[in-house]
Each structure stands twice: as C-alpha cells, then as structure tokens.
Specification:
By secondary structure, the chain is α/β, with parallel strands linked by helices. It has two domains: 140 residues, HAD superfamily/HAD-like (Rossmann fold); 46 residues, no CATH class. It is built from eight helices and eight strands, in the order E-E-H-H-H-E-H-E-H-E-H-E-H-E-E-H. Helix 5 links the parallel strand 4 and strand 5. Helix 4 runs parallel beside helix 8. It starts with a strand and ends with a helix.
Length: 200
C-alpha cells in the first residue's frame, strides 16, 4: 500500500486526560447521540449556548493542564516520518488547546487543523482540506484516531486506511456499515499495523 500522509487525532488518540467529555455532556444535559458536542451545544437556546460553550472551553483547558501524551506517541510520529509520511494533527478541539499541548511537546506535525480552521469531524472536509494542503490524495493517506467521528470522516473522504486505537464500546453503534478499519489496543500496536500496511 502506498501511504504518503497520516492524519492523526489528538484527544483520546495521542493525548490522554482524566477528564471525560461524557461527564460534561451529562452536566450540560446533552445526549450521547454520536454527534460532536459542539453540534449539541449549537442546538441550545442562546443563553444556555453561551454558558455551555464556556463550559466546553474550561473543560478543554483543564484537560490540557491535567493530560499527558499517550505512551508511544513520539515513537509513532518518528516512525511515520522516517518512512516519508507527512503528518497532520486533525482535531475537533480548539487551536488554543492544541497550541498549549504543542508548547509542552514539540511534536513533528507538518500541519495542524482544528475546529477553528474548518469543519468538524465527521465532515469529510475535516480530512480533505488538510490533505489538499499537503498535496496528498485521500487514497494515499491513513487516518489514526479513536472514535466513530474519525472513522465516519475517513470513510466519507475515501481514505486509504484507518486505524482506531481503543474505541469506546458505545461508539460502535455509530460506525458506518461495512467500513474497513484496523483496531489496536495502543499506539505501539498501531505502529506495527502501519508497518505491515507499508509492507515492512
């Protein structure tokens, strides 16, 4: 398989926080309906929407403060770059939160694409726009994430391969029917899977 780019998710994939988005959803009275939390917040009345948006920002800031890189992150990115893949960080998180993470950890991403830069996953444009900037067709790119949103966006974009790292059980109900993906327990296993895809 020819792979020239890797689109890597942040929260839950390479960044782990003790704070859970499910708890924030419950606090805000939003259902676990498979949509991004911002989609739920957008449907709230204006006053509630402003409070919920601030609560999300606070949650994300605390997640950065209390979080840490998942084991195997640096090794995975080094592996990808040694094999000539361009690496992009694609996240539904804010550019402010991403900037705080990258200020603590000098990760070698060629491109960073946040919710402040374009559509949210699962919109395929969340992958297609960064790939266009990298000059790589979707069939020559791999998505590395942990959720149904990553899988939905990858399938919609026509990505060449998808690796999901420990997706939560409840997310499986939102996996696209017939979607092809590889599932791994951690980033070390993800690296091994990608090596096999590359024929190494």
């Amino acid at each position: 398989m020819i792979l020239r780019a890797a689109l890597v998710d942040m929260d839950g994939t390479i960044w782990e926080s003790p704070l859970r988005m499910a708890a924030l959803r419950q606090k805000l009275g939003l259902p676990q309906d498979g949509r991004p939390i911002l989609a739920g917040i957008a449907g709230l009345p204006p006053g509630e929407r402003e409070r919920a948006t601030q609560a999300l920002r606070d949650h994300e800031a605390h997640a950065v403060e209390r979080g840490a890189l998942r084991p195997g992150t640096v090794e995975l990115l080094q592996f990808l770059r040694r094999r000539g893949l361009r690496c992009a960080l694609i996240t539904n998180n804010s550019r402010q939160s991403v900037g705080a993470v990258l200020a603590r950890h000098a990760l070698p991403f060629d491109l960073v694409f946040t919710r402040d830069d374009g559509p949210l996953k699962p919109d395929p444009q969340a992958f297609l726009l960064p790939l266009a900037r990298l000059g790589v067709p979707p069939k020559e790119a791999i998505a590395i994430g942990d959720s149904h949103l990553d899988l939905q966006a990858a399938v919609g974009a026509g990505m060449g391969a998808v690796v999901l790292v420990q997706p939560a059980e409840w997310m499986r109900a939102h996996f696209p029917a017939g979607a092809t993906y590889r599932e791994t327990a951690d980033l070390t296993e993800a690296r091994a899977v990608i090596a096999r895809l590359l024929g190494q």
